[in-house]
Amino acid sequence: MKAPLPQSASTHATPNLWRWLLMAGVLIILDQVTKLYFDGALRYGQRITVLPFFDFTLLYNPGAAFSFLAQEDGWQRWFFTILGLLASVFIVTMMHKSRSNKRLMLALTLILGGALGNVIDRIAYGHVVDFLLFYWKDWYYPAFNIADTGITLGAILLILDELLRLRGQHARST
């Protein structure tokens, strides 16, 4: 009977980086499929009420979150595209170094998938396609999409991970 071979870093019991990247790819596909659906099913600005506080709508955002820089002359398209690509390279580097922390990996995966989903829109259309609209009476949250949801959930997990890490450090030091 042969002795088992030692595991390399890539086959170590920690989550495989490729699985996380595949999950980011699934998020990108889900994001793009939903954007294509709503872009084809609705006219620009059309709203379909789903709940008393939620509509499907079709809006285009040439800016960033909350339509930041949306009124500019177009330079923001390439600025946010390059920013998204640079952030993605940084995130993949962080993922490579953090494979043993599942919560951090999930956070980075969601942010990566969301960032690249919106980068695809900027390259293909010059704007991001938004279709989810929450509101209450006369108050409206800016329309968003699946990529934005991934980025937001990833950011929340990133903050949670850091808070729990700091709490663990504090507990070990006392």
Automatic annotation (TrEMBL):
Its EC number is 3.4.23.36. It is a multi-pass membrane protein. It catalyses: Release of signal peptides from bacterial membrane prolipoproteins. Hydrolyzes -Xaa-Yaa-Zaa-|-(S,diacylglyceryl)Cys-, in which Xaa is hydrophobic (preferably Leu), and Yaa (Ala or Ser) and Zaa (Gly or Ala) have small, neutral side chains. One of its GO terms (molecular function) is aspartic-type endopeptidase activity. GO terms for biological process: proteolysis. The chain crosses the membrane at residues 20-38, 50-69, 75-92, 104-120, 140-160. GO terms for cellular component: plasma membrane. This is Lipoprotein signal peptidase. It comes from Zwartia hollandica. The gene is lspA.
